[in-house]
Design brief:
The structure is a single chain. The chain is mostly helical. It has nine helices and two strands; from the N terminus they run H-H-H-H-E-H-H-H-H-E-H. It has a two-stranded parallel sheet. The longest helix has 22 residues.
Length: 181
Amino acid sequence: MGWQDWTGTFTGVVLITVAALPVAVLAVWALARRRSAGGETAAWRMSLAEVGIVYGTVPWVWMILLPGERAGAVTGRLSLVPLRDLLTIVSDGRPLTLTVQVVGNLLVFAALGYFAPQRFAALASVPRILALAAACSVLVEAAQYVLRLDRVSSVDDVLLNAAGAGLAALASRHRWRRQAY
């Protein structure tokens, strides 16, 4: 198994992500310990949120930016009509494809949506998380297009990525609504 198999495939990214879990746990522990020694009151919460944002978001973005088979040889493709791609996937009648596409897109910025309001008081609202995730998603979709990665840059992906972050923010709302920063 070569370097490209590890860094340039979905399977490789998943394996690296799983292998990095102990490193992420160690990073939370080290950051929290350092903060606690400095007298910071929310050391564990802040450390978990920071590492959670990175660990839960980077692998998804990495996968999105993996080049397709004809990367560089074809021009970028755009799909700017909202819900067109989703309707196409639904009409194809393949439930597994639909599930993978929708769930995958919902998870891209879910960690950001879950942890960012816990770490940054300015982001402690669902509309702000939706805006942040939409902006991040637009950047990723633009990168796919500009880098000619043989992928479709779609407004539906932006909508689903932002929706996933918003749903995750709602799921963590009980944690950040009552916290003092």
